[in-house]
TrEMBL record:
Similarity remark: Belongs to the inositol monophosphatase superfamily.
Cofactor(s) annotated in UniProt: Mg(2+)
Protein name (Swiss-Prot/TrEMBL): Histidinol-phosphatase
CDD domains, A to Z: Bacterial_IMPase_like_1
Catalyzed reaction equations: L-histidinol phosphate + H2O = L-histidinol + phosphate
Signal sequence segment: none
Lineage: Bacteria, Pseudomonadati, Pseudomonadota, Betaproteobacteria, Burkholderiales
One MF annotation (Gene Ontology) recorded for this entry: inositol monophosphate phosphatase activity
Length: 260
């Protein structure tokens, strides 16, 4: 953002990016797709690539000096003051298998801090956005995390047991079995649920910056806490292990159990 920007300017651009991504992804959802395995063995489709290309076209026109870090087309100007971090389809496996719980993730990182985070759920018609100092909203309505402060009362989510290595799985299993409820699945939607107060904890591993920075901006704006497993703030260089919690007390207890 330039010094002349208003808080509405990044939100306007983020909305345009999400609209462009949805126009491509929804058109191909639940249709025959060419699925390609990337180097990390995660599936990618023509929908991912076309959606990110459309997002980059908008940024090239509207914000040519800004950096871009996208899942499908890599890095551009990541040393810029403002960097847009894009995941056109988070939950590609959900997309491929016809599940509606995939989304578009957008973060605006300024000076190493997430100024705006968006989780857009095109099939569900839900757009979750958080802006630093301005709070969080779902489709224009204010949302906030729950008041849960103890692991024993917490509802915890993670996408899949398969995202953890053996040691990290033991830590997650130890934590989650002490919670009131644990659930699997949801991909990026779990972070939106946490921001909306219907769940209390999300713990994951093996993530990339485009997986966690959009949700981080949303959760922090909604009043929650999100860090790595050591309690450090998330940034472009984090190790991909994430703990998101509704309250600082819940976050501290979760970290203590994970690292016991």
């Amino acid at each position: 953002m330039s010094s002349s920007d208003t808080p509405q300017d990044p939100l306007r651009i983020a909305n345009a990016l999400a609209d462009a991504a949805a126009a491509h992804s929804l058109r191909l959802f639940r249709t025959p797709l060419e699925v390609v395995a990337k180097a990390d063995e995660s599936p990618v489709t023509q929908a991912d690539r076309a959606a990110e290309a459309a997002m980059r076209e908008i940024l090239g026109r509207e914000r040519p000096a800004d950096g871009i870090y996208g899942e499908e087309h890599g890095l551009e100007r990541v040393d810029a003051a403002d960097v847009w971090v894009l995941d056109p389809i988070d939950g590609t496996r959900s997309f491929i298998t016809g599940s509606p719980l995939w989304g578009t993730l957008i973060a605006l990182v300024r000076g190493g801090r997430v100024e705006l985070g968006m989780v857009d759920m095109p099939v569900l018609g839900e757009r979750w956005v958080g802006q630093l100092g301005l709070g969080a909203q779902r489709n224009g309505q204010a949302v906030r995390v729950s008041a849960c402060s103890a692991v024993a009362a917490a509802r915890i989510f993670t996408t899949s047991p398969d995202i953890f290595g053996a040691t990290d799985w033991k830590a997650f299993d130890r934590l989650s079995r002490r919670c009131a409820m644990r659930r699997f699945g949801g991909d990026c939607y779990s972070y939106a649920q946490l921001a909306g107060g219907t769940i209390d904890l999300v713990v994951e591993a093996g993530l990339q910056p485009y997986d966690y920075l959009g949700p981080a901006g949303l959760i922090e704006a909604a009043g929650g806490v999100i860090t790595d497993w050591e309690g450090r703030a998330l940034d472009l260089g984090s190790d991909g292990r994430v703990v998101a919690a509704a309250t600082p007390a819940l976050h501290r207890e979760a970290l203590a159990i994970l690292n016991a």
